[in-house]
Amino acid sequence: MSKEKTVAENEVIEAETEENEAAKETKEEQATAESKEDALQKKYDELYDKHLRTLAEYENYKRRTQKEKDELYAHAQANTILELLPVLDNLERAAEAAEASSLAEGVQMVLKQLLEILTKMGVSEIEAVGKPFDPNLHNAVMHVEDESVGENTIVEQFVKGYMLKDKVIRYSMVKVAN
């Protein structure tokens, strides 16, 4: 019996050893799988972060280029209108000079049409005569002493000023009293 007992004990020990080895292998496989999973998760997180940053950069690029396009358009529009203002001045002078002639009606129609187009584009005249002098809107080219009007009041306008929306494209040239 002791031999049988020893053989049985050896078989139990061998079975336990095999179970322990199998458990160790399973634990090692699990650890390896977990480390691979952690590495994959880390790589995924890095790529996702990179993706989010790329999206943010692209949105910033779109916003910046749209802003540049808008500024370029506004600048080109202002320059074009600035080139047309002398034509407007000459039409106004022609309308004043042609009041008694047969050309007066035609000149008035052309002047009216040009003013309508400029108004649609957002161009407005800067009011000057009788208003207080504002260096942001007016360019004082003369100064006169006149007690009948208030201090820093514009008494005469030499050249009309114009604004495009809320930006001055040509300052009014004025004479300021006191």
Features:
178 residues; alpha+beta; Nucleotide Exchange Factor Grpe, Chain A, domain 2; 3-stranded antiparallel beta sheet; 3-stranded mixed beta sheet; 2 helices
Largest sheet: 3 strands, antiparallel
Terminal CA distance reads 134 Å
> N-to-C SSE series?
HHEEEEEE
If helices are DSSP runs of H or I spanning 4 or more residues, what is the number of helices? 2
* Structural category: alpha+beta
Record field, number of beta strands:
6
Low-confidence stretches: none
Could you say which overall geometry the principal axes of the C-alpha atoms support?
Answer: rod-shaped
Strand order of the largest sheet: 1-4-5
Radius of gyration: 43 Å
Q: Can I get a quick summary?
A:
The protein has 178 residues and is an alpha+beta fold. The chain has 2 helices and 6 strands. The radius of gyration is 43 Å and the shape is rod-shaped.
Question: What can you tell me about this protein's structure?
Answer:
The protein is 63% helix and 18% strand. It is of the alpha+beta class and 178 residues long. It is built from two helices and six strands; from the N terminus they run ααββββββ. It is rod-shaped. It has two domains: 1-90; 124-178, Nucleotide Exchange Factor Grpe, Chain A, domain 2 (Roll), CATH 2.30.22.10. The mean pLDDT is 89. A three-stranded antiparallel sheet has the order 1-4-5. The protein has a three-stranded mixed sheet with strand order 2-6-3, with no helix packed on it. The protein starts with a helix and ends with a strand.
